[in-house]
């Protein structure tokens, strides 16, 4: 009987180890929240609606992430509830290009028209990079900490400071670990 | 005996799975926003990890003591239903690092109280919650803070330029001295560039 309990205990340890191995490892950068709606496992989507003037950037970002294929980012319809809303919020004293905010029924990506196309900073404006970054948050990707990531992740806290307008290999790995 | 061992193993695994140890639901975090603060993630227009850029992007850098909560604004966006919460505090200026502020000024911090529409069982209801930007806690009375801000003339308040990099709490004399030295050096380095 003692051996039986030992077997159960060992099984428990084995299962927990297996389970944690499939979770993102320490170097992965994941948020505790996202805008994704999974009705059944492996059938995940983000339904979005649009109130922004930055349609080009929004289209670019959605196209980029949809290429990875595990979460469908598609427009809202009359028959669905939006998971994510693109809006503009102008604040010329603020120094942010955009934000993603989890807000219950529908999350928000907000662009700041005062800075997103502004040339007054060290790095040139890149609305496409900013939109890819924010949709990355909607997909549960977090900011990596440390300036090491400036050249290696679109999820760096300043998207326009990164060298390309789209995700890097590390971001793709984080996405695939999450979805 | 062998059968009972197998039964125990099966029962054990079932219990473990049901208890959630093996759960890997990608959307397992509650989305209702009513339990704990919501965390807004931001992409800045400059590199907030670089103090020189932080100082350069700010109009004022100073150390101040939070006197009291001065207001709360929930400002409209291009979508009627979406608003951006912000909280204002009165701050007494102690030391200027960049700029020449005097007396007590109003500092604006993104984040604050937000009412969230929650759906449960097909019903919608409003739950009060708190929205924090980059997890930056709201400033409290009595706190001593190093702030890097930009002035909003329409509202006569000084907005923190990058939370939490530009509102650093000073909890000891040593921390205060170090922060002031680092930000002064960053300003000098930027000027001489």
Major β-sheet annotation of chain A: 6 strands, mixed
Helix content of chain A: 25-40%
CA-to-CA gap between the ends of chain B? Answer: 80 Å
Low-confidence stretches of chain A: 12-26
Assign the structural class of chain A, choosing from mainly alpha, mainly beta, alpha/beta, alpha+beta, or little secondary structure. alpha/beta
Classify the beta-strand content of chain A into a percent band: 15-25%
Q: Which series of helices and strands of chain B comes N to C?
A: HEHEEEEEEEH
Largest sheet of chain B: 5 strands, mixed, barrel
As an assembly, this protein is heterodimer
In short, what is this structure?
Chain A is α/β, with parallel strands linked by helices.
Account of the 3D structure:
The complex is a heterodimer of chains A (179) and B (193). Chain A is globular, with a radius of gyration of 19 Å. Residues 12-26 of chain A have low confidence and may be disordered. Chain A contains four helices and six strands, in the order H-E-E-H-E-E-E-E-H-H. In chain A, 31% of the residues lie in helices and 19% in strands. Chain A is α/β, with parallel strands linked by helices and 179 residues long. In chain A, helix 2 crosses helix 3. Chain B has one domain: OB fold (Dihydrolipoamide Acetyltransferase, E2P) (Beta Barrel). Chain B is built from three helices and eight strands. A five-stranded mixed beta barrel of chain B has the order 2-3-4-7-6. Chain B starts with a helix and ends with a helix. The model of chain B is unreliable at 14-34 (pLDDT under 50). Chains A and B meet through helix 1, strand 4, strand 5 and helix 3 of A and helix 1, strand 1, helix 2, strand 4 and strand 5 of B. Strand 5 (96-101) of chain A pairs antiparallel with strand 1 of chain B.
